[in-house]
Automatic annotation (TrEMBL):
Signal peptide (UniProt feature, chain positions): none
Gene Ontology molecular function, alphabetical: exonuclease activity
Keyword Heme recorded: no
Domain (Calcineurin-like phosphoesterase): residue spans on this chain: 2-197
Protein name per UniProt: Exonuclease SbcCD subunit D
Organism: Alkalicoccus luteus
Keyword Repeat found: no
Domain of life according to the entry: Bacteria
UniProt-listed Pfam families: Metallophos
InterPro entries: Calcineurin-like_PHP, DNA_Repair-Maintenance_Comp, Metallo-depent_PP-like, Mre11_N, Pesterase_YhaO
UniProt entry keywords in alphabetical sequence: Exonuclease, Hydrolase, Nuclease
Length: 386
């Protein structure tokens, strides 16, 4: 049996979407979240005594890697070297292999696959593992990847690393593949990268995207981390997700209808929310709490969230003030009453009287301007609600 960690899309140096109301501590945590997630992944690899680690592309977010990111990565990988855990890396469209792009050498336990594609043989206990992969030489790879990933007829486990996506999703330049080609290639496991949402394309053979290692944008929701994979001849493969990111992003819609006090509002907003989660909030419904502006409410929620260890990102406030709703309702009722009066009441007789009609305002007979004046008199001049 062999055990290994499969991860991808760390995107070191990528800017992270941070809520405007985040505290200084929250901002610091979010800014270093990618490094924290990878550190946790390496600690898991060490504590679980895995045979090796696979990184399927986009370790860095930019072609030009910052020295800070390289130094951090090297330090973490050196910890695995001391545990004698080898690491196999392919570079993707964000961090292709370009001359001069890497200034710091990686530890000896790290192997980076070339642009041409290659196979590496790894003895692991009583098993032999054959690893196949290739790195991008630029920001795109429009050709099929299958010509660079050809399984050899040898015993042991055969695992392919690939940074790309299905061609079925439309034309693209990221190693487009057909799922049937991957299934028919004869590999025991496909370690994919590039898609940031964790997904399983096939059980037999196992073909997996581990997803990105943090939710850097509002689109990247849910738990983020790595896959722990166990392969054993004659047994069903085991693929287990392990969360390594220090936070999650989740979308939440809160209906404010019927909430009449600030305590109830805060309670409704925080009901069921968990620490270490950045909630992307949409407020809806009819807001009945008077005396507070939207800014007041947002600031209050941010303060309560920080105290509870929860992150709030209010991106949509679709609430409607109760006074506006009642005003619209009253106007609708008045319009209906006017129509009934014009159609059935004494006013109809007046507007049709041959003598009296000549002395009525033209607007009363021809359009609704008169009734708009009545409405304004009722709601403003007549002491309507503020």
């Amino acid at each position: 049996m062999i055990r290994f960690i499969h991860c991808a899309d760390l995107h070191l140096d990528r800017p992270v979407s941070i809520p405007a109301a985040a505290s200084a501590d929250q901002k610091a945590m979010l800014q270093k979240a990618a490094r924290t997630s990878f550190k946790n992944a390496c600690e898991t690899a060490a504590s679980e005594h895995v045979d090796f680690m696979l990184i399927s592309g986009d370790l860095y977010h930019y072609e030009t890697r910052s020295l800070s990111a390289q130094r951090y990565l090297r330090n973490e990988l050196e910890k695995l070297a001391r545990r004698r855990i080898p690491v196999y890396v392919i570079h993707g469209n964000h961090d292709p292999v370009i001359s001069g792009s890497a200034a710091l050498p990686m530890p000896d336990n790290v192997h980076v696959f070339s642009e041409e594609g290659e196979r590496r043989m790894l003895p692991s206990g009583d098993e032999t593992v054959h690893l196949y992969g290739f790195s991008y030489s630029g920001s795109a790879h429009a050709a099929t990847p299958m010509t660079k990933l050809v399984k050899e007829n040898k015993g042991g486990f055969h695992i392919a690393l690939l940074h790309g996506q299905e061609a079925a999703g439309g034309a693209h330049d990221y190693a487009p593949f057909q799922l049937r080609d991957l299934k028919e290639a004869g590999f025991d496991y496909w370690a994919l990268g590039h898609i940031h949402q964790r997904s399983n394309l096939s059980e037999d053979p196992p073909i997996h995207y581990p997803g990105s290692m943090i939710g850097a944008s509002r689109k990247e929701t849910g738990a983020k981390g790595v896959l722990m994979v166990e392969l054993e001849k004659g047994r069903v493969p085991s693929v287990q997700f392990i969360e390594t990111a220090p936070f999650r992003r989740e979308h939440v819609v809160i209906d404010c209808t019927g909430i009449e006090t600030m305590d109830k509002f805060v309670s409704a907003c925080f009901s069921g929310l968990e620490p270490n989660t950045l909630y992307i909030i949409t407020l809806t419904g009819i807001f009945s709490i008077h005396g507070y502006s939207a800014g007041d409410l947002h600031r209050m929620l941010a303060e309560e969230a920080e105290a509870a260890g929860i992150f709030l990102d209010i991106v949509n406030d679709r609430t409607e003030a109760e006074s506006q709703t009642l005003s619209a309702k009253l106007q609708n009722e008045l319009n209906e009453a006017i129509e009934e009066t014009k159609a059935e009441g004494p006013l109809q007789q007046l507007t049709k009287h041959p003598v009296i009609s000549r002395h009525l305002p033209d607007t009363l007979q021809e359009d609704d301007t008169f009734w708009q004046d009545v409405w304004r008199e009722l709601t403003v001049g007549g002491g309507g609600s503020d």
